[in-house]
Amino acid sequence: MSAPGPVGLVARLDGARVVVCAGPGGVGKTTTAAAIGLALAGRGRRVAVVTIDPARRLADALGLGTLANDPERVAPDRLAALGVEPPGELWASMLDPQRTFDGLIAELSPDLATRERVLTNPLYRQISGAAGGSHEFTAVARLHDLVADERFDVVVLDTPPSRNALDFLDAPDRIAGFLEGRAVQALLGQGRTGIAARVARRGTGLALSALQRLTGVDVVRDLATFFEALGPLTAGFSARAVAVRAILRDDRTRFVVVSGPGPLPSAEARFFREHLRTVGMPFTGLIVNRVEAVPAGPERDGAAVAAGLSAVLGDALAAKVGRTWDEHRERAARDAEAVAELATAVGDPRPAVVAALDGEVFDLPALAAVRDQLLAG
To answer: Of 31, 115, 39, whose CA–CA distance to 357 is shortest?
Structure first.
């Protein structure tokens, strides 16, 4: 008896609690994450799809118009038209760093006074509104909350383009390391007066005083107030980071690399796969999106196509169609070769291949067409 062949990608996601979709930009990764969510909902799972990428394509693909920080459910009757029946459900949200940050502060604060001191602190408002770092931190907090939410069986996470996604994956370790570092712990133990004195002793007192006169902002006071208020919350922050670190390494977490067949997306996909291997996170499979494919039917070259159309189109126009047909076949052959090479490089003997569609994925039926290709793969 021959050994069973490789299992298709969607079947490999059975039993997953978290599915992380990562890869380069411009390859349809957000749409693919939504299609995975639709496929899992069709298998009876209650799925929450969340995007960290500030692009709003996910809302368009799901027909929701806009997405908020809190997951919104896709109407059951719309899913039923695509073959998704209860208990399958599909929810979607887009990360709002400010709201997530504020909600985390409110949850971890021991009392109302502490919460207000942090939320109204000017330094906190700057940190929480800085998209560069807050997206990583709040993505960690959001993933923790969604995994703990009993409404959902599985969370599908759409990350930013791959190099930024690596920042997200490393965020739990960096957050925990920062909060447990000696410098932060020393500041947290000083109290407001002690922090102010410590900052001033660093030889920055004159510069900060000049800055205050220029801007009207008392940097030392805001910094001291921030760290004083932050003290009671650090244990909760660290616990979240440690919990998400465990989630990312859990055997129910599946990492899917999404790529295109071109050389640049393929290089990024290989880089990401290698990083997963280095940090010991589980790799589940490869999806190659927007692949050129030759239509089904008997194989024909451009000359045969032109000969069959010349009586209708005339020789000149039929010849142009024939040349276009050959160019299409050449692109399809190059893409097929690129897919095979990438699959070997990342170690997936049966990648899911999604053919290029005629138009953009902007509604549920188009999203279902992507889903169907994933299921076929």
So the answer is: 31
φ, ψ of residue 37 in degrees (nearest 5): -60, -40
| Mean model confidence pLDDT for the chain | 82
Widest distance between CA atoms in the chain: 91
Per-position DSSP letters for 80-129, written without gaps between them? HTTT--TT-EEEEEE--HHHHHHHHHHHH-SSHHHHHHHHT-HHHHHHHH
**Whether the predicted pLDDT of 218 surpasses 60:** no
Gap between the Cα atoms of 321 and 305, Å rounded: 8
Q: Say which residues have a Cβ less than 8 Å from residue 120's Cβ, sequence separation at least 6.
A: none
**Is the peptide bond between 24 and the residue preceding it cis, with omega within 30 degrees of 0?**
no
* Residue 208 predicted with pLDDT over 60: no
Residue whose C-alpha is closest to residue 29's, from 184, 255, 218? 255
β-strand partners of 285: 256
CATH class of 12-188+234-294+336-376: alpha beta
Q: How far, CA to CA in Å, does 162 sit from each of 65, 159, 211, 338, 348?
A: 26, 8, 39, 19, 18
Q: State pLDDT tens for residues 259-270.
A: 999 999 999 999
Give the lowest-confidence range in 158-167, 192-201, 272-281, 290-299: 192-201
* CA–CA separation, 177 and 349 (whole Å): 38
Q: What is the pTM of this model?
A: 0.84
